[in-house]
Amino acid sequence: MASSCSSFMITLALLVLVIGGANATLYTNFYSSSCPKLLDTVKCAVESAISKETRMGASLLRLFFHDCFVNGCDGSILLDDTSSFTGEKNARPNKNSARGFDVIDKIKSAVEEVCPGVVSCADILAIAARDSVHILGGPSWNVKLGRRDSRTASQSAANNGIPPPTSNVNQLISRFNSLGLSPKDLVALSGAHTIGQARCTTFRARIYNETNIDSSFAHIRQSTCPPNSGSGDNNLAPLDLATPTFFDNHYFKNLIQKKGLLHSDQQLFNGASTDSLVRTYNTNPGSFFADFSAAMIKMGDISPLTGSLGEIRNKCRRVN
Ligand code: HEM
Ligand SMILES: *[C@@H]1O[C@H](CO)[C@@H](O)[C@H](O)[C@H]1NC(C)=O
Predict the structure, then answer these.
(1) Does the CB atom of residue 165 touch ligand 1 within 6 A?
(2) Ligand 2 centroid vs 151 CA: distance in angstroms?
(3) Where is Ca(2+) 1 bound in this sequence (predicted)?
(4) Percent of residues, the chain, with pLDDT higher than 70
(5) Where in the chain is the domain with CATH 1.10.520.10?
(6) Per-residue pLDDT reduced to its tens digit, 273-282
(7) Which part of the chain has CATH 1.10.420.10?
(8) What digits encode the pLDDT tens for the residues 60-119?
(9) How far is CA 200 from the centre of its chain?
(10) Domain 26-162: top CATH class
């Protein structure tokens, strides 16, 4: 692992081109002169975190989603609550659920060591999400960079902005649309649920009460998720029953077999216009990978702070 990382570094150093000029938009070589070792440093740290715990790849990917859907990709999800500051970590979609903050701290420290005060936490999230997907067998893409970190966060925006698993397909389409993401982006990005875990409390109603679910699948999930709320709420189940630690297109196969774990998952294949995309991604993993990559880049473009807005945080957990 170490040798592949250093050969990557050399390649990167050879490819560095200095691009000057002001920037209102994100671009891939934003740090190529100010922090040429950035991509290699992040990748090595993500590899190390995933080798300790495979699920961490999923958790890092989700952090980026939860950052971008709340006032843009600005690192706001990383801010800790304090006695005088309420952040997003205890918002409903994040509490007892969002994880990987310690890994982000580690990556940030490694990055600060090679180029202090230069790289935003928001950009680290974007790179870590890309690397996680690739390391777990998914596609890779060129990450656009140049985001700066917020000095604020909003618990209410997190409560309202991140769709709950009880959403129906029209609510999902509408929330994604409000951020400039199409129904195709919605379906492709939902393919992220090919990795990672969910808590019983997020899928209990589905496995006990819904009819568009494969009954043997429901029974299997019921065995570790008791019916009464309050008991076993935090018991985990894989979002993709078949290949839960591998980034592939099996999520879509599950939906076609009525084995989506979350209500919101199965909504994408329940007789609505999104059915045809689910079928496409089921038969064509290449088009899933291409559309997922494009959608991740689009999601990463949601209202970034650039130029002199925001700051480059010293520590991702608190404003400077
Ligand atoms: C379409 C609307 C979405 C809804 C309603 C939704 C909902 C959820 C829920 C309820 C969980 C389980 C959380 C828990 O029990 O602690 C989860 C996990 C996850 N979500 Fe989503 N999600 C959506 C879209 C996305 C997108 C766009 C991504 C990334 C591109 C994503 C990535 C993940 C990952 C990787 C996990 C597993 C995390 C882990 O194991 O730590 N989700 N999601
Ligand atoms: C299933 O639906 C019934 C009737 O609405 C409700 O009383 C019960 O709490 C639901 N069970 C779960 C696990 O959601």
Answers:
(1) yes
(2) 42
(3) 67, 70, 72, 74, 76, 88
(4) 92
(5) 26-162
(6) 999 999 999 9
(7) 169-295
(8) 999 999 999 999 999 999 999 999 999 999 999 999 999 999 999 999 999 999 999 999
(9) 20
(10) mainly alpha
